[in-house]
């Protein structure tokens, strides 16, 4: 039998906590029988829930923790109250010590990122971590990063994001040389996007083996799937992600209203039921649940806090895929390629190369 | 008879140029009979087109210009080649001289903004102009600004945007005290959004009569219509706008695919046809075509370059509404209220007021 894939789970995270996390983990292990879990949380709550899932029970080890990071804790509060001892911390720490191959939590993003940075530290030359999201497109799926780890990024950091995003795309989508675009605004010559332009020069000059730099893309290119990886800083990335989610919900509501307005529409809806089901499935945010923290010494997957068991299972399976496809090694390789090829490549060099 | 509303039209702008602009203007004057136009462009092309629309012909004056600003001209090129003499410049200048009450162009955004700034200059204390878009929401419509006039904005500039956006909301939506939100990311305590936090303090401290400051909003609040006016800097605003457009197109494509996949789905589609038509109408980007340049000594409406006659007519009608509802006076009033009430309000004062 193949080596099992061991993930650490923060059972106390998410709006519904263990009531959502445990059934989610159970779903994942049914679909990926080689999964094993280290589950951290309040055993008095969790143990009875696990009893209902014999397969999960056989595949997990339960570790008691007293402290819970709340969904509205600020990162600094969470660190103060939860470091060394909360379920969130312990789950991250299991990745650091090598007991787990990746960590999954539906806890609050700010706290999870702060603890992950503190515990796992930055990977090699990477200055800043990023959160990468998988984004459904008309062509399939793309990766967008950073969707909210930090605000602002200089050219060097954007290049790091590009390299890490490409590594993730090669791991998840099995691409040799993923197409990478830098998110920009269409208007030429407006001020303030110097860092994006500089990153473009650096990527073009570096001409990396694992990354096909495809130029600037705009907001509407994301859903079109123009590139495999869309790179931006965390403020714009987070706003793009949330805006797309909001627009999808808005259109779903328009559609519901339209389809219940007349008898004919209702009848049409019933006949086209399976088509609507397929549409709903395509638009199901649970299917692409899970932001991946990149740029740390270990993989941490952030599940949506408000998701259900099915959504949490998706996040767990995303973690599983990352491990199986050797994401960490691919990122390390990409970063090292960049720093070898581009070497001490700085912008002056890149600009000289442009001429 | 009421005083006519006179708009200046750049007939040479847009991907299709006069072939789209002239029928668009004709549509608008049919729906708003008190419209009058000053139409700038190549008369040898335009005059024959106008002949086909007697009502438009009776309502317009045609002014010949030789120079055309191309859709891919950079702003600096456009200024160099087109200042004083292009159809775009002349249409803007008509607002400056008071011959027209507002200007409408489907020409390229960067050039139109550069010329508008150069010709009309900034309004009073407003440091930077913004482009405001009307955004359809599940509750109706909201205004989002800046969607791409400039990149980056400090706290003071964000407050200007808030005041101008509120004035526009009161003009367009007929609201006494529009709710205004600052676009932000959900994660607490992350760095780099100081200007957004500072703007929040300043808006709260100023407590303006024409603006109900409602706090931070996130990307998904835009489509939800949580506030009447969403304020952000131009990079994030442009990306939000384009991302929403891309998502809407993406879902429309999913829907088309789903509805043509099986016989039953096709039959259902036919029965629910009117519901789909209503949905299409709701999602029709032409209905909300037109970005309004705020913060200049005059109103300039930017129509989407790729729109059709119907879309251009919407942009013209938006300009009409702005004039009829006295947008310029409302903005001037809002800005003056702010500088009187908040007076020389700076952040130190705002912060003292917070304690």
From TrEMBL, chains A, B:
Keywords: Acyltransferase, Cytoplasm, Lipid biosynthesis, Lipid metabolism, Phospholipid biosynthesis, Phospholipid metabolism, Transferase
Assembly notes: Homodimer. Probably interacts with PlsY.
Record family assignment: Belongs to the PlsX family.
One of the GO BP terms on file: phospholipid biosynthetic process
Functional note: Catalyzes the reversible formation of acyl-phosphate (acyl-PO(4)) from acyl-[acyl-carrier-protein] (acyl-ACP). This enzyme utilizes acyl-ACP as fatty acyl donor, but not acyl-CoA.
Catalytic activity: a fatty acyl-[ACP] + phosphate = an acyl phosphate + holo-[ACP]
GO cellular component: cytoplasm
EC number: 2.3.1.274
Main location (coarse class): cytoplasm
Pathway connected to this protein: Lipid metabolism; phospholipid metabolism
InterPro entries linked: FA_synthesis, Phospholipid_synth_PlsX-like
Compartments it resides in: Cytoplasm
Listed name of the protein: Phosphate acyltransferase
Keyword Acetylation tagged: no
Gene name in the database record: plsX
GO molecular function: phosphate:acyl-[acyl carrier protein] acyltransferase activity
């Amino acid at each position: 039998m193949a080596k099992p894939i061991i993930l650490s789970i923060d059972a106390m995270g998410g709006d519904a906590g263990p009531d959502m996390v445990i059934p989610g983990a159970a779903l994942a292990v049914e679909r990926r029988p080689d999964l094993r879990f280290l589950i951290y949380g309040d055993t008095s709550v969790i143990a009875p829930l696990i009893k209902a899932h014999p397969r999960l029970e056989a595949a997990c080890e339960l570790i008691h923790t007293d402290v819970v990071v709340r969904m509205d804790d600020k990162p600094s509060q969470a660190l103060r109250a939860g470091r060394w001892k909360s379920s969130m911390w312990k789950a991250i720490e299991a990745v650091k010590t090598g007991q787990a191959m990746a960590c999954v939590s539906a806890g609050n993003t700010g706290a999870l990122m702060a603890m992950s940075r503190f515990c796992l530290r930055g990977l090699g030359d990477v200055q800043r971590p990023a959160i990468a999201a998988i984004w459904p497109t008309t062509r399939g799926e793309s990766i967008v990063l950073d969707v909210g780890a930090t605000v602002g990024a200089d050219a060097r950091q954007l290049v790091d994001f590009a390299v890490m995003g490409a590594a993730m795309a090669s791991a998840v989508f099995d691409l040799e040389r993923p197409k990478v675009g830098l998110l920009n605004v269409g208007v030429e010559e407006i001020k303030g996007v110097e860092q994006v332009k500089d990153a473009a020069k650096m990527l073009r000059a570096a001409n990396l083996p694992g990354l096909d730099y495809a130029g600037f893309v705009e907001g509407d290119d994301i859903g079109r799937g123009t590139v495999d990886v869309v790179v931006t800083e965390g403020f714009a990335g987070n706003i793009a992600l949330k805006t797309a989610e909001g627009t999808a919900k808005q259109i779903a509501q328009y559609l519901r209203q339209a389809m219940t307005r007349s008898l004919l529409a209702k009848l049409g809806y019933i006949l086209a039921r399976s088509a609507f089901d397929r549409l709903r499935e395509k638009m199901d945010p649970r299917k692409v649940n899970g932001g991946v923290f990149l740029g740390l010494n270990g993989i941490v997957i952030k599940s949506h806090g408000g998701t259900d068991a099915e959504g949490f299972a998706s996040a767990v399976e995303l973690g599983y895929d990352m491990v199986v496809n050797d994401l960490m090694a691919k990122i390390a390789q990409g970063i090292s390629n960049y720093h070898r090829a581009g070497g001490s490549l700085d912008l002056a060099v890149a600009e000289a190369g442009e001429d």
